Amino acid sequence: MKIEVKAKIHPSEDPDKVTESVKNIFPEIDLSVKENQVKGKSTNKNSLEKLKNKIGLQAIRDTARKELEKNRENQSIQFSLNKQVATVDKVNFSTGETPLGSIEVRIEAKDIEELIDYLVSKKEER
């Protein structure tokens, strides 16, 4: 499994706050700031645990599953999370432009359907 996250840092933003917003969703991923961007990579499925928990706690499983299925391509998923919402420790999938941009997430896995089921259980399994 390969997990990549990145978020652009706009001139009006504090790099530490952008890093913190990404850490709110992906605390297990080591992040670095380079060229006005926060980036992180992981190969550990546990790096997705907080995202999974937030999806369940916020009761947005159906929306999350639709977004993940829609953005699935072969052995990968690519999606965006609202960076501003992440600053308050919440998850919100971005489907368009947001004022300060998004947290871009790309996940590659051998069995992408299994990964989606891990992040968001099927309705009949809840």
UniProtKB/TrEMBL annotation:
Source organism, top-level taxon: Archaea
SUPFAM superfamilies the record matches: RL5-like
Family according to the record: Belongs to the UPF0201 family.
HAMAP family reported for this sequence: UPF0201
UniProt-recorded name of the protein: UPF0201 protein AKJ53_01395
Species: candidate division MSBL1 archaeon SCGC-AAA382F02
Lineage: Archaea, Methanobacteriati, Methanobacteriota, candidate division MSBL1
